[in-house]
Automatic annotation (TrEMBL):
Gene from which the chain derives: cas5c
Higher taxonomy: Bacteria, Pseudomonadati, Pseudomonadota, Alphaproteobacteria, Rhodobacterales
BP term (GO), one: maintenance of CRISPR repeat elements
Name under which the protein is recorded: pre-crRNA processing endonuclease
Species this chain originates from: Celeribacter ethanolicus
Function: CRISPR (clustered regularly interspaced short palindromic repeat) is an adaptive immune system that provides protection against mobile genetic elements (viruses, transposable elements and conjugative plasmids). CRISPR clusters contain spacers, sequences complementary to antecedent mobile elements, and target invading nucleic acids. CRISPR clusters are transcribed and processed into CRISPR RNA (crRNA).
Keywords noted in UniProt: Antiviral defense, Endonuclease, Hydrolase, Nuclease, RNA-binding
Length: 222
């Protein structure tokens, strides 16, 4: 028996950053599987489960907009945090925001609408009380009520995601000319249990849908 759910995800802006862009942020044309998983995990996640994205439906035209935003050039190092924890003080846990601030360009997506199909799997950390039906019901209930552990976002935290649990997706407004495209290599996910190993897949938009089940069968590149 398959335990899954369908979510309609919308937002005014989105940026699913291409990792090969080192200076300025440039978004992929569509949402990445890892970003979709992040949205679902913001609603419901436990160590006992793992969310797997099956399909991403692109329901709106792919439109880009160039914007500029302020970012911080550095971050507090892990060693500094560990030192503060051992000393039991927050002294030194700060950044000189004015000196570190920099303005960067971003090629972001505008007015995005996605339909995401996903299912969950149990992990080795599941206990005797854990089962797929229990967790999928919890996820559906939280999505229906608009509950989440933190604000779901579309690539970056400044771009919040509007998430709705649905039984069927609305009719797509993606133009016919954009419904079948080869999107090239796209980030699939990051394997944190293997030293943050990046996994990629050959993304194809077929009738407006990226089929991740098919991509996994074809094999992922590392």
């Amino acid at each position: 028996m398959s335990y899954g759910l369908k979510l309609l995800i919308k937002g005014d802006y989105a940026c699913f950053t291409r990792p090969e862009m080192k200076v300025e942020r440039v978004s992929y044309d569509v949402m990445t599987p890892s970003a979709a998983r992040g949205v679902i995990e913001a609603i419901h996640w436990k160590p006992a489960i793992r969310w797997v994205i099956d399909r991403i439906h692109v329901l709106a035209p792919v439109r880009f907009e160039n914007i500029r935003r302020n970012e911080i050039a550095s971050k507090i190092s892990a060693s500094t945090v560990k030192t503060a924890m051992k000393a039991r003080t927050v002294s030194g846990l700060h950044l000189n925001v004015d000196e570190d601030r920099q303005q960067r360009a971003m090629m972001a997506l505008r007015h995005v609408v996605y339909g995401v199909e996903a299912h969950l799997e149990m992990t080795p950390r599941a206990g005797a009380e854990d089962n797929p039906a229990k967790h999928i019901e919890m996820a559906r209930r939280r999505a229906e009520k608009g509950q989440h552990f933190h604000q779901p976002c579309l690539g970056v935290r400044e771009f919040p995601a509007d998430v709705t649990l649905v039984e069927e997706f609305p009719e797509s407004t993606l133009p016919e000319a954009e419904r079948n495209r080869d999107l090239g290599w796209m980030l699939y996910d990051i394997a944190y249990d293997r030293g943050r190993e990046a996994m990629f897949f050959h993304a194809r938009l077929e009738d407006g849908v990226i089929d991740l089940e098919k991509a996994r069968q074809e094999g992922l590149a590392r």
